[in-house]
Structure formats: C-alpha cells, structure tokens
C-alpha cells in the first residue's frame, strides 16, 4: 500500500502540485488574486474535493448517488459546533474527526441496504437519506435549528485547503488503480458478470461509498470554517445536483475532468456575475450543449498523465 502512494507517478504529482501551490500563493501575496477572487478560489477547491469523492461513487463504481450533500452537512456541522466551542485549530481537527466518524457510521447504515438496489432506486434512496440528515439538523438544539450556526471562526487557510484537496485526489486516484478499484470498475461495466466472477459487489460498493462520504465530510468542514455561517438550507437536494453537474460535466470516471470542470464552472460563475438575469440561462445552455455534443463529458474516462505527455513528446521528436 505504501509503495503505491510513494510511487514515481505520485512523486511527480506532488512536485507538480507544489509548483501550482507556490504560483497561486505568489499571486495572492502580490495582490493579483485579491480577496474577491480568493472566495472563488476557495469555492473551487472545496468543489474539487466534493466532485472527486462523488466521482469515485458514480464514475468508478457506477452507483448513482444523490446523497452527497448529506455527508457534507455532517462534516460542516461537526466542525462548526467544535470550532465555536473551542475556537482554535484543535477544535477544527476534532470537528473533522467527529464528522468522519459520523459519516462512516451513516454511510454504512445507508449503503448496506441501499447498495443492493440499482439505478434510479439507489438515487432515490440516497436522496431520501440526504433529506433525513437535513431534517435532523433542522430540529436539533445543538445545531441551532433553522437559524443555523453563525460566528464560526475562519480556520480554512489556502495551504490547508490545497493540502487536503491534493490528498483527496491522490486517495481517489490510487483507489481507482488498486485491486479494489479495478473490482469497482468491473461492477460499473457489468455488475452481473462481476458477481459471476466471484466479486463481492456489495463489499466493494460499500467501500467506495464510505470513502466518498469521508471526503465529502472533510469538504463540509472546510466549507463551514471558511464562510462563517452554515444553515440547513445550504445542504438541500440542489447542492447534491450542483456536485453531480461538475462530475457529469468533467466526465464520469475522470478525476482530471472533475478538477477541470470545477475550475471552469467556478470561473464561469464569476465571469457571468454582471449578467445576473441571464447567468443561469447561459449556464444552462452550456450544459445542454455539452450533453448534446459531448455526452461523455469533457474528458470522458480519460486522465491526464505524465507518461502520456512524455510519449507525445517522443512521437513528435521521431516525426522530426
């Protein structure tokens, strides 16, 4: 397992990520990326974590889930409550840990019966779960009900967000390349054939679902400690759809696609701020165009890799 995470490929990605982090930090320090654009940057980072975690469930494992907002809600409120009570980074750490534990328990409770379902039935079941979580939060005293939690200390810094984002991408990507990931891909392609070959489909689907829930919970914690205020209305069905749109837009099964789609949609939202009345119309037209002309998403199931880049350069040299 450790060899997989410290392979040459992962080391290349870590170096690449460090270069991007240094560049963005430099742009922020000199004021090119101002406070307004930093809000967009943080939103993009959180959405990337949410998108890659949902892509693991939908794109790699082939299970259509609409309950991601529920796990995000668990992480957000766990971190929000702990940070408000402790007011420091230790509170955030405890909040993330509590959110992860609750998310694992909730994911197991939901996944063990529902992942035996397929297609639309699974989507409806996970959607119902997300609504149950929201209603529970709405009626609890510790969460302050419909008024939500306010005055949450901002502890989500760019280095913290970037590190957790990179870790999330590496976890999902390495899982997809592992033996368990290949089993999940076989389930996605043909579940009946996978069962016939002796693959425990429920076990692997549950594993992918739990990992996705953990990462969504972490994204929720980052969200809560970045925007000061959280309310149950932020984690409705629409939030799950927003995450799903990023996954479909980038390509189900492509983590690179999810990252590109999250960046593109984040930048698009900023670019269309001045067209408030037409923004959603333009946004919808672009999505419809993608579904018509590129139904598999921007990248389909393809991934950007350094090996393919090097092969392309070698071919160009050979042609010359």
Structure, explained:
The protein is an all-alpha fold. It is built from 14 helices and no strands. It has helices spanning 2-5, 8-29, 35-60, 68-86, 89-114, 120-138, 158-177, 179-189, 191-196, 201-227, 237-250, 255-271, 279-293, 306-319. The mean pLDDT is 86.
Topology (SSEs and partners):
Elements: H1 2-5, H2 8-29, H3 35-60, H4 68-86, H5 89-114, H6 120-138, H7 158-177, H8 179-189, H9 191-196, H10 201-227, H11 237-250, H12 255-271, H13 279-293, H14 306-319
Helix pairs in contact: 2-7, 3-7, 3-10, 3-11, 3-12, 4-5, 4-6, 4-10, 5-10, 7-8, 7-10, 8-10, 11-12
Amount of helix: over 70%
Q: What's the overall average pLDDT, rounded? A: 86
First and last CA, distance: 41 Å
- As a whole number of angstroms, the C-alpha radius of gyration is 20 Å
Uncertain stretches of 5 or more adjacent residues: none
What is the chain-wise order of helices and strands?
A: HHHHHHHHHHHHHH
Question: Tally the helices: what do you get?
Answer: 14
Strand content: under 5%
User: What is the approximate shape?
Assistant: globular
Structural class comes to: mainly alpha
Biggest sheet character = none
* Secondary structure tally: strands: 0
């Amino acid at each position: 397992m450790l060899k997989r995470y410290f392979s040459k490929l992962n080391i290349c990605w870590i170096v690449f990520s460090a270069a991007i982090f240094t560049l963005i930090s430099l742009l922020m320090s000199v004021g090119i990326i101002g406070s307004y654009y930093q809000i967009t940057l943080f939103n993009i980072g959180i959405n990337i974590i949410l998108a890659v975690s949902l892509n693991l469930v939908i794109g790699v494992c082939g299970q259509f889930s609409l309950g991601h907002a529920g796990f995000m809600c668990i992480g957000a409120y766990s971190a929000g409550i702990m940070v408000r009570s402790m007011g420091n980074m230790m509170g955030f750490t405890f909040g993330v840990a509590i959110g992860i534990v609750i998310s694992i328990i909730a994911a197991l409770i939901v996944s063990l019966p529902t992942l035996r379902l397929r297609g639309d039935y699974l989507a409806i079941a996970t959607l119902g779960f997300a609504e149950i979580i929201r209603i529970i939060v709405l009626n609890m005293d510790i969460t302050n009900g419909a008024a939500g939690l306010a005055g949450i200390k901002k502890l989500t810094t760019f280095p913290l967000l970037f590190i957790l984002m990179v870790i999330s991408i590496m976890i999902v990507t390495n899982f997809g390349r592992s033996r368990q990931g290949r089993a999940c891909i076989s389930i996605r392609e043909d579940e009946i054939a996978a069962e016939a070959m002796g693959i425990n489909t429920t076990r692997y689907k549950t594993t992918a679902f739990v990992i996705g829930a953990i990462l969504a919970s972490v994204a929720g914690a980052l969200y809560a400690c970045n925007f000061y205020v959280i309310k149950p209305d932020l984690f409705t069905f629409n939030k799950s759809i927003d995450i799903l749109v990023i996954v479909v837009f980038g390509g189900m099964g492509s983590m690179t696609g999810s990252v590109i789609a999250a960046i593109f949609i984040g930048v698009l939202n900023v670019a269309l701020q001045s067209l408030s009345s037409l923004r959603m119309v333009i946004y919808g037209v672009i999505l419809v165009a993608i579904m018509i002309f590129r139904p598999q998403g921007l990248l389909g199931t393809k991934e950007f890799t350094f090996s393919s880049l090097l092969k392309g350069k070698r071919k160009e040299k050979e042609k010359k």
